[in-house]
């Protein structure tokens, strides 16, 4: 694919194709659900854990997506340079954050309500015994330690991409030189 | 004893982290937006832009769980949080799915790019191919123009060559369709057939020009069966009815499938050749006859002299015996006739005697003949019409023998007319052949073609037995030939002038003019 700075897709028609493909995918999913409802029947009553399961599954999706994009970029590099490093780091942190979130959500669902010392609604402590699971849960709750750097690296990557594009275009050449 | 693990640090990190997430996601969205503005065609920037939108949505939805949640609880609105919590979780889930979808789909762009690149490559190849084809086409076009030009030039040259051959050929060149109707004929053919314009001949049947129908059928049959015919001698007639002898070589014309579409041919005019050959044969015949006649005359002359001598002696002896004397007179008379014949035969033979030739004025020579003959003619109410050419050159001739020729012809005219009629005599100088023509015609019944063929043969006569020897014209023929001239007969005359004068038969006697200082015999 060559240098990322030169990786400029040259064709609006292909962009239109991409959008059309997304729409097609969406349409296919809807069509499958519509013609092949299984036992869902017309109206399905969802039980309590369903929201958590969907959320957990979406974490898995996110996780797999990040793993996939990292694999793809390592297998077929679209470019080289700091921006790409930042971007890969961002994806990596998001991947780890998703793993952490998935585990933390799972642990949280297994920790009994009495484990939290409450005053009013907001719990202030995680009561003993502090088991390994509870330690892991406690550590996992600091997930912003992972997602904030992930977002930070994404910003850095985009900023670097933007600077390169700016220079490439010649508009901001003087500013950066 | 340990109280437990404090959750406050977690809350603090949540609030700060969620706030940072919002700020950072907005920053990311800003840069991705600017990137898409800067390079709108880039699919990567497009992907990142949509990813950032999803990230902003994620950050905002998380802020509900990690910031608003504390605020609501702290300010005693925990029930509000209870209502918002499912939305926060649901929104988070949706953003995850969106990010996943976008991320999974992005690599497909690579394939799209590859396909586009391949398409672009194919397009470029097609463009290059088209350019090459165009170049080749231009070269071919240029070459084609040059080749067409060369071919056209060659074709024009060839056409001109064959056109010249067609137009200038002295032989007849013709083209016919399948019905043997003339499509085209060259000027020689038009002239030979007595027409003025080839348009007059276009569409005319070739058969119309053939005298002999059987000959035409034979010509067609041979051409049809063999496909060509070579040196076919045909007797044809021109528009004015005169005979033309043609030697025709012809071929069938066929189309690309081999089907006959007409014929083409060349015809050579043999009329002159035939005339020359006829004259030659006649001359040879006359020469042979002359030799024979000379021999016979020489051999018979002596016995006849003896017979005549003894008969005259016997007449002297039997003068008193009437019966015998009359018999002897008959013998003497017949013997003299025989001697006359022998004498004529000797005259016919050119080799028999040598004569003295001198320049002779033809007009005067004829007038002297008429001085003797005209009286006899007038007696039978036959009158002479004279048209003498003025200032005629003289001819080298034996005057007496020339007069004998003219006398013979006039005498023949007299006998043909019997009573009442006109004898026309014309003299003229023909510069083309440097000869003086004497034309003697009569208004008699004319001569049959069969008779005309033998008219100069010795002993050939149409007169009653005993009235003519059949040697008059033969002798005249011999005399004319002896003078290097020519004698011909036309019945009816070919020239309109003589037809208008009422002539039915016309003798044309030509003598070469006398040139001073040139040995005429040579």
Concise summary:
The complex is a heterodimer of chains A (177) and B (522). With 177 residues, chain A is mainly α.
Are there runs of chain A of 5+ residues with pLDDT below 50, and where? 1-10, 40-44
Distance between the termini of chain B: 176 Å
Largest interface: A-B, 64 and 66 residues
Number of domains of chain A: 1
By CATH's scheme, which homologous superfamily of the largest domain in chain B applies? Histidine kinase-like ATPase, C-terminal domain
- Order of H and E elements of chain B: EHHHHEEHHHEEEHHEHEEHEEHHEHE
End-to-end C-alpha gap of chain A? 27 Å
Shape of chain B: rod-shaped
The CATH topology label of the largest domain in chain B is Heat Shock Protein 90
Q: In total, how many beta strands of chain B?
A: 13
- Percent strand of chain A equals 5-15%
Q: Structural class of the secondary structure composition of chain A? A: mainly alpha
Strand order of the largest sheet of chain A: 1-2
Helices, strands, pairings?
The complex is a heterodimer of chains A (177) and B (522).
Chain A: H1 12-35, H2 50-75, H3 82-110, E1 116-119, E2 122-126, H4 132-140, H5 144-169, H6 173-176
Antiparallel strand pairs in A: 1-2
Chain B: E1 5-6, H1 8-38, H2 43-74, H3 78-105, H4 108-168, E2 172-177, E3 182-185, H5 187-192, H6 198-201, H7 213-226, E4 228-237, E5 243-254, E6 260-269, H8 271-317, H9 322-348, E7 358-360, H10 362-379, E8 382-387, E9 395-397, H11 399-417, E10 421-430, E11 435-442, H12 449-454, H13 472-482, E12 486-490, H14 496-500, E13 505-512
Parallel strand pairs in B: 8-10
Antiparallel strand pairs in B: 2-3, 2-6, 4-5, 5-6, 7-9, 10-11, 11-13, 12-13
Helix pairs in contact in B: 1-2, 2-3, 8-9, 9-13, 10-11, 11-13
């Amino acid at each position: 694919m060559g240098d990322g700075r030169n990786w400029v897709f040259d064709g609006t028609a292909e962009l239109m194709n991409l959008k059309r493909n997304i729409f097609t995918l969406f349409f296919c999913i809807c069509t499958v659900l519509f013609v092949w409802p299984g036992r869902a029947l017309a109206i399905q009553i969802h039980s309590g854990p369903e929201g958590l399961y969907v959320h957990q599954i979406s974490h898995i999706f996110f996780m797999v997506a990040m793993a996939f994009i990292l694999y793809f970029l390592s297998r077929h590099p679209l470019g080289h340079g700091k921006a790409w490093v930042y971007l890969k780091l961002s994806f990596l942190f998001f991947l780890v954050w998703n793993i952490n979130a998935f585990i933390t959500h799972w642990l949280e669902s297994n920790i009994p309500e009495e484990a939290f010392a409450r005053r009013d609604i907001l719990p202030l402590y995680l009561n003993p015994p502090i088991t390994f699971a509870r330690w892991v849960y406690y550590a996992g709750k600091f997930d912003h330690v992972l997602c904030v750097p992930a977002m930070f690296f994404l910003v850095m990557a985009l900023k670097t991409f933007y600077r390169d594009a700016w220079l490439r275009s010649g508009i901001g050449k003087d500013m950066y030189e | 004893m340990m109280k437990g693990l404090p959750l406050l640090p977690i809350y603090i990190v949540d609030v700060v982290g969620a706030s940072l997430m919002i700020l950072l996601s907005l920053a990311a969205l800003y840069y991705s937006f600017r990137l898409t503005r800067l390079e709108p065609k880039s699919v990567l920037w497009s992907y990142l832009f949509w990813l950032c939108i999803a990230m902003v949505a994620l950050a905002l939805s998380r802020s509900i769980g990690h910031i608003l949640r504390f605020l609501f609880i702290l300010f005693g609105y925990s029930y509000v949080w209870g209502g918002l919590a499912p939305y926060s979780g649901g929104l988070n889930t949706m953003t995850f799915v969106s990010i996943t979808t976008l991320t999974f789909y992005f690599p497909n762009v690579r394939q799209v790019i590859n396909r586009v690149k391949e398409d672009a490559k194919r397009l470029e190849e097609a463009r290059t191919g088209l350019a090459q084809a165009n170049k080749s086409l231009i070269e071919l076009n240029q070459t084609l123009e040059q080749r067409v030009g060369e071919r056209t030039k060659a074709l024009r040259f060839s056409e001109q060559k064959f056109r010249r051959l067609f137009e200038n050929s002295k032989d007849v060149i013709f083209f016919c369709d399948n019905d043997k109707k003339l499509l085209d004929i060259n000027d020689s053919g038009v002239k030979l057939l007595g027409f003025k314009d080839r348009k007059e001949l276009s569409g005319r049947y070739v058969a119309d020009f053939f005298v002999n129908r059987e000959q035409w059928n034979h010509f067609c049959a041979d051409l049809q069966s063999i496909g060509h015919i070579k040196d076919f001698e045909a007797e044809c007639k021109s528009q004015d009815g005169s005979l033309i002898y043609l030697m025709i070589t012809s071929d069938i014309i066929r189309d690309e499938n081999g089907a006959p579409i007409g014929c083409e041919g060349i015809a050579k005019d043999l009329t002159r050749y035939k005339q020359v050959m006829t004259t030659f044969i006649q001359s040879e015949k006359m020469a042979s006859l002359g030799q024979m006649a000379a021999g016979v005359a020489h051999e018979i002359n002596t016995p006849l002299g003896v017979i005549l001598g003894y008969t005259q002696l016997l007449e002297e002896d039997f003068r008193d015996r009437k019966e015998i004397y009359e018999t002897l007179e008959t013998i003497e008379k017949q013997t003299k006739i025989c001697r006359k014949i022998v004498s004529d035969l000797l005259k016919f033979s050119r080799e028999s005697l040598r004569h003295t030739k001198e320049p002779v004025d033809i007009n005067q020579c004829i007038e002297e003949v008429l001085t003797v003959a005209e009286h006899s003619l007038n007696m039978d109410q036959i009158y002479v019409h004279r048209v003498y050419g003025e200032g005629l050159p003289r001819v080298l001739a034996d005057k007496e023998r020339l007069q004998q020729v003219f006398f013979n012809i006039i005498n023949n005219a007299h006998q043909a007319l019997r009573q009442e009629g006109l004898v026309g005599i014309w003299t003229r100088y023909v510069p083309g052949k440097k000869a003086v023509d004497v034309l003697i015609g009569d208004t008699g019944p004319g001569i049959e073609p069969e008779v005309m063929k033998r008219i100069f043969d010795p002993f050939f006569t149409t007169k009653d037995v005993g009235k003519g020897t059949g040697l008059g014209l033969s002798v005249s023929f011999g005399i004319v030939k002896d003078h290097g001239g020519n004698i011909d007969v036309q019945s009816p005359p070919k020239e309109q002038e003589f037809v208008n004068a009422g002539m039915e038969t016309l003798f044309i006697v030509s003598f070469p003019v006398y040139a001073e200082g040139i040995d005429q015999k040579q």
